[in-house]
Design a protein that fits this description.
Helix content is about 65%, strand content about 0%. The chain has 22 helices and 2 strands. The protein is mostly helical. Helix 1 runs parallel beside helix 9, helix 4 crosses helix 7 and helix 7 runs antiparallel to helix 17. A two-stranded antiparallel ribbon has the order 1-2.
Length: about 550
């Protein structure tokens, strides 16, 4: 740590201290009669308005890892990295109506998690358990990835050690996060999101104007990127898509869009809003973040022109591609502004990490603890269990970073994206139809999860020497269906999660037809039809059992 960048570190620390104070103050912000209830602690009392929800969802979906990973992907692969742009545009019209329906039935029935809805819709604790476990497993590495983004900033400021000592600043940051999340619940990230988004917008606007003018303009930047990719032997890089990666780009964008609001933290932010009109306004306004994301992605090309070299991870001895953007800022900005930029990324890690840990804790409490361990748990016991679970989740994410190669958490998140997509039939489609039989959905989930993991396991990555779990792009030539290779010899690539979802739906449909013909009992539906048609002016409606 002899090369500490003190001006940057001081500004970073001051802004971090500011959001820490806000995090603790949030417990008194728009507070109900008590925080000893999941509705208050885990959903902010279900009364966030348009502005709060906009910042909360933005902080939830556009994370620190997004800030560093998207430009890093553009830096290494070119146009393929822009898949994040169309997927964050098409996601909002896709999820508008499902989000409204989920909010309505959850408000009336007092649901806190997507697994609560599945339990009520199909009367199946097994299916609800599978959805809950999938949500928790998919969320854990997502939290760890926020630490990856935060560590990239810390390394750039000179904190680049190994072992517990090298990770001490990271550990301190997340202990502080754990405490104010424990105390304030969802209100903490909601309040901090205001600061986070203001800083990010400021940094991106300055970067996208100042850096190109300093480096010779956009024409020169794109020419430099073309020259770099022309020299590589890879068939899927370049500033334009080609025949080999167009299908991958399209299916990755669509699959990511379908998966985004299946993540429990995304639905947590939706359920925390006070009315359907709030959700509608946000689905209209949230694409503003997509504009910022597009500008952010272009920094990958800017880094090529600036000759950025990623820092070496002292623990692994490998180049850390996640440091591309922090190093770019460190090299090109004045120290004081680089400190602000680093704080934007660091705070951008805290907001989603807090929401994700709360969402995972809600799943554990409502769909595992209360369902299988303590059925008669009081609201106070539920709230206490959720608070403790949120601490465990955060400590688990830190342990992944400290004890295991951080690349492992990236691999896990890759798996998590494929896994969470397999809950689409039970969660999203079930909002519109109850045609699927619960045993069909369970069978589809098993096939989707299993086939997805098998395909991911068989994908190598020659660039880093990994033989398994080397990416999410599967060559159609390697696609096997019971030993049959329908596209043998094809070099075209496709997103694994999309293929697994198709298998999931096919199996779910087949088992459903069989179960219906055999007249197998399909559970009891506790969601009434009127749950989906809650009046537009229902902001004062309280969930069942909440007074």
């Amino acid at each position: 740590m002899s090369n500490l960048q003190w001006p940057e570190l001081i500004i970073f620390t001051l802004l971090f201290a500011l959001v820490t104070v806000l995090g603790f103050m949030a417990s008194r912000w728009q507070r109900g009669s008590t925080l000893d209830h999941l509705d208050e602690w885990g959903l902010g009392g279900r009364k966030f308005g348009s502005w709060i929800t906009w910042f909360l969802l933005g902080g939830d979906l556009y994370t620190a890892y997004t800030f560093v990973a998207v430009p890093a992907l553009v830096f290494s692969a070119g146009a393929l990295g822009f898949y994040a742009l169309p997927y964050t545009i098409v996601v909002y019209p896709i999820v508008l109506l499902p989000a409204l329906r989920m909010w309505s039935v959850s408000r009336v029935r007092g649901y806190v998690t997507p697994a609560d809805f599945v339990r009520g819709r199909f009367g199946s604790p097994i299916l609800a358990l599978l959805v809950a476990i999938t949500g928790i497993v998919a969320t854990m590495p997502y939290i760890a990835l926020q630490l990856v983004g935060l560590e990239a900033v810390l390394r750039t400021m000179g904190i680049n050690g190994s072992g517990i000592v090298g990770h001490l600043p990271l550990l301190v940051a997340f202990i502080i996060l754990a405490f104010y999340t424990y105390q304030s619940g969802l209100r903490a990230p909601a309040l901090i999101a205001f600061v986070k988004d203001i800083l990010i917008y400021l940094v991106i606007l300055v970067a996208i104007i100042y850096l190109p003018s300093k480096l010779g303009g956009w024409s020169h930047i794109f020419d430099t990127a073309v020259a770099k990719f022309d020299k590589t032997p890879a068939k899927t890089d370049g500033i334009l898509l080609n025949a080999n990666n167009q299908l991958q780009y399209a299916t990755l964008a669509l699959g990511s869009a379908l998966a985004l609001f299946l993540y429990p933290h995304s639905l947590t932010s939706v359920l925390a809003s006070r009315g359907r009109s709030v959700i509608k306004r946000n689905m209209v306004a949230l694409p503003a973040y997509s504009l910022v994301l597009g500008l952010l992605a272009l920094l990958g090309y800017v880094a090529i022109t600036a000759g950025v070299k990623p820092l070496t991870n002292a623990a692994t001895g490998k180049a850390d591609g996640n440091t591309i953007v922090p190093v770019l800022f460190d090299n090109q900005f004045a120290s004081w502004f680089a400190g602000i930029a680093f704080a934007a990324i660091g705070i951008g890690a805290l907001v989603p990490a807090a929401i994700m840990s709360i969402a995972a804790a809600n799943l554990w409490t409502r769909n595992i603890y209360k369902e299988y361990i303590r059925k008669n748990a009081t609201p106070q016991e539920e709230a206490k269990q959720a608070k403790l679970a949120s601490l465990v989740v955060k400590l688990g994410a830190v342990a992944v970073i400290i004890l295991i190669d951080p690349q492992f958490s990236i691999d896990l998140q890759l798996i998590g994206g494929v896994l969470i997509l397999q809950t689409l039939p039970a969660v999203a489609l079930a909002l519109y139809t109850r045609w699927f039989h619960r045993w069909g959905l369970i069978a589809g989930w098993v096939v989707g999860i299993g086939w997805g993991l098998i395909m991911l396991y068989g994908i190598p990555n020659p660039a880093n020497g990994k033989q398994h779990f080397g990416g999410s792009a599967l060559s159609l030539g390697n696609l096997s269906i019971f030993g049959w290779h329908p596209f043998a010899g094809s070099a075209v690539q496709i997103y694994v999660g999309f293929v697994a979802l198709i298998g999931n739906l096919v199996v779910a449909a087949i088992v459903t037809v069989i179960a219906r013909r055999l007249k197998v009992f399909n559970g009891t539906d506790d969601t009434e039809p009127e749950d989906y048609h809650t009046d537009e002016h229902d902001k004062n409606l309280r969930p069942i059992g909440v007074h």
